[in-house]
Amino acid sequence: MESIFRKVRIKFLYVGTASALMSVVLLYAGYRITAFLYRAGLHTADSSYVKLINWIINHIGKLPAAMLTGSALFLAIFFWRSGKIRSDLEELCREHAEAALMVEAANDEAEEDEQSDIPAVYVHSFKGLH
């Protein structure tokens, strides 16, 4: 059972690391594209894009805005990439619960077979002792 948990931990570590790297790459690409569009003159001085970028830089700051955007990207990518692992774990837990119910039912049947020569009054009183 420990090996299953180790595999799951390693998968989540991989997904977390990959999500962090992907968010850094996307954040850098977004920064470069924004800087190019801002400097390229593909806008007018009163366009909403320029006003929005100026407002973010002046009121929030470049670094906090990048940190917020990077965190949001990381969370979105992490939840997207870990969905498969989560569904696998849910299926594993469901199968484990079904197997536990089957074992419990088999144990109950075995106990009833062992206690068949005991009168019914005593059988019910022993079942509460488990």
UniProtKB/TrEMBL annotation:
Presence of the UniProt keyword Transmembrane in the record: yes
Keywords: Membrane, Transmembrane, Transmembrane helix
Residue stretches spanning the membrane: 12-33, 53-80
Name of the protein in question: Uncharacterized protein
